[in-house]
Amino acid sequence: MQPEKTDLGNVLTDQDVLRYLTTNPEFFVVNQDILPRLRIPHESGAAVSLIERQVSVLRGKCGALENSLRDLIAVARENENLHQRLHLLIQDVISAPTLSKIVGLTRSSLQENFHADDVQLLLIAKKPTQALKPKAKIASSTTTRKRKPKVIEGLQVVAHDDDRLALFSQLFESGETCCGLPGTAQLEALVGDDYSGIASAAIIPLYHERQLGVIMLTSRDESRFASGKGVMFLNQLGELLSRRFHGLNSIVPTNLK
Questions:
Q1: Residue 121: in which H helix or E strand, if any?
Q2: Rounded distance, CA 62 to CA 228, Å?
Q3: How far apart are CA 224 and CA 122, in angstroms?
Q4: Boundaries of domain holding 83
Q5: Pairwise CA distance, residues 117 & 114, whole Å
Q6: Which of 95, 116, 137 lies at the terminal end of a domain, its last residue?
Q7: Tens of pLDDT along 51-94?
Q8: Are 105 and 93 in contact, with CB atoms under 8 Å apart?
Q9: Are 182 and 203 in contact (CB under 8 A)?
């Protein structure tokens, strides 16, 4: 049966709708998805009929499902955009020639893409393999000056046996990003005494063949990195950076103050 043609340029009246439905009696059979949105009176006096109650419940469920679907689509789009931005960061990190460049790229990307107010890195220096010979020490002290370590914003490098590393032993054991508000000792180890403005943080362990360090994202918003937040992207980024930092020759004990 061909549907009746109507002039879409005119406003439909009740009679137009009634005439269309009368001419097309199977309309609601073909378009059953619209039924939960309609309000159809059912004469039952002062009482609410079972059919009306069922329709009301179905209409509420339909609205809730539509809202959930919109939320899921929004999250999927946000994750896709984030994945693309992190892919660009990975390319930049792989090609970055220096530790300073890698740290700068990492901090700026995490601040922009994860809305972190600040990002701090703590890297662990390699364990010395052998002591320098006395003659080499003398020659080095007489012929060359001791080179000062380069200061990189947002980065500190500590010795492999630094006492502060014990604060992150559980983090390394889990191998997973930890969200929430860190303890006072952990905050002091990563940012010093100026941590009063930190309401939440995410700490990423860096590990590849050995403990390499940690990265901490902080926020003044307690809900930004609240416990239970999804950390899939942060874990993936941590694995990449772990491999990259492991391959750097610049993280050695001689760079320590």
A1: strand 118-124
A2: 29
A3: 22
A4: 11-95
A5: 9
A6: 95
A7: 767 777 787 888 888 888 887 887 778 778 777 777 888 788 88
A8: yes
A9: yes
